[in-house]
């Protein structure tokens, strides 16, 4: 029997952030961890999984639920997939206990503090994979969401990988052995496991399956607030006659272009623009909140303050450029992950957000994760 495994580590947690030992104790995913899980989920969205198994620790279960959102299978929780047991050193600050932690880490034996050693872990891991394999058929694909030290110890034991060589190579690159929300792969066949992908970030995973995507970015037409020179971000106002005419003209320009998907901001002015552009065309439309315009906070609807006079947008509770850039990159990744190679997609958004989307495209092209050509229509 042959079974294909994809392994994902959970996202960053509070204890990861505060540099505490985290084994079978638990702490919640932080905002970074949730974003990492969403990124990995999108990177894996088009992969097929017959089964999804996850550790019983909530940080792994929460990660698994995020990754599973694009798949029909629900995560099956297993205590045997929980992190390596560090005993009473669990939850300790590295800064307080580093000398003791390093002694135990070097020996990889934590039994004197009530934890595990390698032989005990191997017994537990073999039981876990016996259970998993018993649920599988030939050529099944399995997703496992677990922990960093768990995967390191899999390499040392049932995966029969040269862990010391791997560790030295990663140390030389100043790279984590098993990054948060990384993707690794191995195959089981007739009693033997073979590693086929060392842990990679979601972007590294994408880079091995490059795509070429063309994006046509269109801003909404003129609105009531535009006419009155009011700031219009997440707040909304109706398209003017000029805005309606503009959308109709864009529809005419695009009528002969084959478009795979249309991604539209959830603001009503964007949805109305999309309806006018796509009139009479049957193209899948996906509405996304993260394509909305910048949130201007207390300045929404204002027409008295000159934006050039503003030095600190946060004074008004407005969205920062960094926050917009994160939002734009998330949207761009997911648009590319949803699309086939050589696809042409239409994005209907807003003027300032389109600038941030163009910046995200430049960053993605530089990183080599996807080759994106973006063109704007006026």
DSSP E strands, number: 11
Number of discrete helical segments: 13
Instruction: Report strand order across the widest sheet.
Output: 3-2-4-1-5-6
Question: Any idea what the radius of gyration is?
Answer: 25 Å
Kindly identify the CATH topology of the largest domain.
Rossmann fold
Average pLDDT works out at 96
Integer count of domains: 2
List keywords for this structure.
378 residues; alpha/beta; Rossmann fold; 2 domains; 6-stranded mixed beta sheet; 5-stranded parallel beta sheet
Would you mind describing this structure in some detail?
With 378 residues, the chain is α/β, with parallel strands linked by helices. The protein folds into two domains: 2-207, Phosphoglycerate mutase-like (Rossmann fold); 212-377, Rossmann fold (3-Layer(aba) Sandwich). It is built from 13 helices and eleven strands. A six-stranded mixed β-sheet has the order 3-2-4-1-5-6, sandwiched between helices. Helix 2 crosses helix 3, helix 10 crosses helix 11 (268-277) and helix 12 crosses helix 13 (351-367). The longest helix is centred in the C-terminal third of the chain and has 18 residues, at 321-338. It is elongated, with a radius of gyration of 25 Å. The model has no long low-confidence stretch (mean pLDDT 96).
């Amino acid at each position: 029997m042959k079974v294909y495994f994809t392994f994902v580590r959970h996202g960053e947690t509070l204890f990861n952030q505060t540099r505490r030992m985290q084994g079978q104790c638990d702490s919640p995913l932080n905002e970074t961890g949730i974003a990492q899980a969403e990124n990995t989920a999108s990177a894996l969205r088009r992969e097929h999984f017959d089964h999804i198994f996850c550790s019983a620790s909530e940080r792994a279960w929460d990660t698994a639920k995020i990754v599973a959102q694009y798949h029909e299978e629900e995560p099956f929780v297993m205590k045997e997939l929980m992190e390596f047991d560090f005993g009473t050193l669990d939850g300790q600050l590295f800064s307080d206990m580093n000398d003791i932690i390093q002694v135990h880490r070097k020996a990889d034996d934590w039994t004197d503090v009530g934890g595990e050693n390698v032989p005990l872990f191997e017994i537990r891991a073999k039981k876990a994979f016996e259970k998993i394999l018993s649920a599988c058929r030939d050529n099944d694909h399995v997703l496992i969401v677990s922990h960093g030290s768990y995967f390191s110890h899999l390499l040392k034991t049932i995966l029969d990988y040269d862990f010391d060589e791997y560790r030295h190579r990663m140390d030389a690159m100043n790279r984590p052995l098993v990054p948060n929300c990384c993707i690794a792969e191995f195959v089981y066949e007739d009693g033997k496991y073979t590693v086929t992908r060392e842990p990679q970030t979601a972007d590294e995973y994408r880079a091995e399956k490059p795509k070429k995507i063309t994006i046509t970015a269109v801003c909404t037409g003129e609105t009531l607030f535009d006419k009155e020179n009011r700031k219009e971000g997440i707040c909304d106002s109706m398209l003017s006659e000029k805005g309606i005419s503009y959308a109709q003209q864009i529809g005419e320009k695009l009528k002969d272009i084959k478009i795979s998907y249309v991604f539209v901001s959830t603001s009503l002015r964007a949805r109305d623009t999309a309806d006018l552009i796509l009139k009479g065309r049957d193209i899948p439309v996906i509405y996304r909140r993260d394509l909305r315009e910048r949130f201007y906070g207390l300045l929404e609807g204002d027409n008295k303050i000159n934006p050039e006079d503003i030095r600190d947008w946060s004074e008004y509770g407005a969205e920062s450029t960094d926050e917009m850039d994160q939002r734009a990159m998330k949207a761009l990744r997911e648009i590319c992950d949803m699309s086939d190679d050589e696809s042409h997609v239409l994005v209907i958004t807003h003027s300032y957000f389109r600038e941030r989307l163009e910046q995200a495209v430049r960053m993605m092209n530089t990183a080599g994760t996807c080759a994106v050509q973006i063109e704007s229509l006026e």
